[in-house]
């Protein structure tokens, strides 16, 4: 298995991207024949969350002309007709199952660039639909709309394409209604987009535990354990109705959906949390996403200061927050949240101001968080 090499707990400003940090001794790469046999085999079997990254990396090794270990994403080129159409279709099916929308986009474009007589009408429409969904998932709904429009010129009675066009048009209109120029909220290969219902499958993959013994995202972030798709969709709908509650997907230019960030802002004071899937932790993606979120809060939500909380044993997240300018507060949450630390980003304030601001913020958020009342606080502030 090709493995990602994690970086140290302290996040350096020159953090290396995952595809640049693959182990030097690349695990023996199967021959093309073995790869095709593996594709056919996995096509008939379930894929577990712990194996997803392996298959994502294998797809990149076999679709791109150069290896991941020594080539920048922007410098890669397709190998046109490197494989038979049937093999590309198997790879496309695998990428869709993995919700690896970056590779769905790459593989579908490779197929669409083949001569027209290489694809049947059924294959063509299937590839167009896959490409359109990949574009929408990557925040490029208007590009998807144009692609499906062009396909409909050739197959104007194709029910699958018509259905796809209506789906893409709906999401393009939703994107057009936003007052935020999302293209401005990209940095170092990451972008934020509103979390939408179509993210559900990618969310499921990344939200799952990737290895035994690791704490789940739900446990680390006090998020629900979704037992059914309807639970997640209901949760998303409820989040949208919360006052001043903003929920975003974190999209990486190569890996697609890698996590989520949330921001609540009341009277200029923000509170945020974020999570990343286990496969994408330790590369500096979290701080980059938070930096984009803080910029968004400042420019579009009127935010002047922001708070966050993290478990006292989560040293990695503590270092990450400190790296982007947050400071640990000398104020603590009361039980049952006394195993979490509070962090602050903004202008200097007194401890009394922090306490008053936090208590007001917790009330506005409808949270049951309470602050611990210490003897020193009573002596210095209430007497």
Automatic annotation (TrEMBL):
Cited InterPro entries: Acyl_CoA_acyltransferase, GNAT_dom, N-acetyltransferase
N-acetyltransferase domain: residues covered: 190-348
Keywords assigned by UniProt, alphabetized: Transferase
Pfam families linked: Acetyltransf_3
Example GO molecular function: acyltransferase activity, transferring groups other than amino-acyl groups
Protein name according to UniProt: GNAT family N-acetyltransferase
